[in-house]
Each structure stands twice: as C-alpha cells, then as structure tokens.
Amino acid sequence: MQKLLILCILTSILLISLVTAATITGDIYIYESGTAKVNLISDIPLNLSGLTFENKKIIGYTEALTKKGSEGWSLMLDVSSYDETFIDIHLPKNMKAVTAIEGDNSFLDLDSRIVTIITPGTVKISYITKPTSTQNWIVYMWILISTLIFAGIIFFVYKIRRKKDRMSDILPFINDNEKSILDKVIKKPMRQKELRDKLGLPKASFSRYITNLEKKRLIIREGDGKNKIIRSS
Q1: Beta carbons within 8 Å of 58's beta carbon, 6+ residues apart
Q2: How many C-beta atoms surround the C-beta of residue 26 within 10 A?
Q3: Crossing angle (nearest 10°) for helices 203-215 and 192-199
Q4: What is the rounded CA–CA span in Å between residue 201 and residue 182?
Q5: d(CA 178, CA 193)
C-alpha cells in the first residue's frame, strides 16, 4: 500500500511538471538595420517591445534584441525562464564575422549564419557587418560629387588663366579707350548706350572702338538696335 502511494505521488509530480513545462521554439530573423523579425511558438510570452502573444504564438518586429556599438553589433536573448528551447537566430545577410558568443547553450552554423539556442539561458552574440548597398551608394555619390567639384575648380582656374594670358598678349595692341571699354564689360555686360554714356566717349569714336574690339574677338554684341548688349568674349 505504501509503495502504491509513493508511485501515485511520483506520477502526479511528473504529470504536473509536464503540464507546467514552458517551451519556446521557432525562428528570429535579424535584418541589416538591427530590427528582428520574431516568429516563435511558446506557452508563455517573451517580454520584448513590439511583440504580441496570442494562441501560443510570439510574433512581431522588435529592436530590443540588438544594439550597435563602435566595434559592431551585439545581440542578447534571455530564455532562462523557459524549460525547453530550440530557437534559430538568423543573422543578417551582410554579416562579415561573428566575433564572440557568450553562453554555453547555443552553437553556430557559420555557413548559414544561424545561431541555434538548444537549452535555457542567456545568449549574447557579437558580430560585425559589411557596408550595405545604401552605404556604398552614399560613398560612391560622395566620390563622384567631390570629383566633379574638383574638376570644375580646375576648369574655372584654367579658364581664368587662359583669359589673362590672352589679355596680356592683346593689351599692347589696343588703346586706352578700348581698354576702358573692355574693363567695364569684363565686370558685367552692359547696354551699348549705357556703356558709352559712362565712358563719355563720342559716338563715332565709340563705334570704332567697339568694332576694333569685336575684330580682335575680345567682346561680343548681342541684340538689336539700341538694346544691344556688350559683353566680354
């Protein structure tokens, strides 16, 4: 009779432990941004922000699992409150290397980038990633823009020097009034009448100076009649 009673007690304890045992299984996918997509089956919820627990399913997206530091990313998951665990953590596609795994309840499949948690406890994974396509695009754009700016500066300096060299060659062959006209239109284009009034030159002489400068290709006249604009070439 005593043996029967002991057997009943042990059986009851075993049944209670089987009924109350908490299990958690499934997959966690880590994206390049650090966000985790969670798809787990469990008897009790996993208390992380962004996750929902319904019909023994823990699903959702959370950023509470990962943290980015100066030396890379770290991921920590605590499943010590469960009795049985089997979780596959899929590390991001741009993962370069796993630098550390803390906890003896998991193993790493490096080819598949999967860390499997097989017993209760806390696991911490440290890993580094390659630059994403977006980061590469930003770098390429920065290089392209810098190159274009540098090329523009070189072209601008070359154009100024070429113009100065040309002026140095031509200035000995133009008179002082023509130099005055040229100085004005180099600073800004002007209407023909406005330019003549500013310089106070006779109309006939002014026309001759303008013609000489045009022949030497130092100025360009645009427009018709009184509205002609004179600018440097």
Answers
A1: 24, 26, 38, 39, 40, 41, 42, 45, 46, 51, 52
A2: 16
A3: 120
A4: 14
A5: 15
What global pTM score does this model have? 0.53
Tokens of 90: 């899929």
pLDDT in tens, 62-83: 999 999 998 899 999 999 999 9
Q: Is 58 exposed, middle or buried (0-12, 13-18, 19+ CB in 10 A)?
A: buried
Q: Which of 41, 128, 31, 48 is nearest to 89 (CA)?
A: 31
Q: Which helix (H) or strand (E) holds 96?
A: strand 95-102
Other residues' Cβ atoms within 10 Å of the Cβ of residue 98? 16
202 conformational bin, left if phi > 0, alpha if psi -120 to 50, beta if neither: beta
Pair type for strands 114-117 and 51-54: unpaired
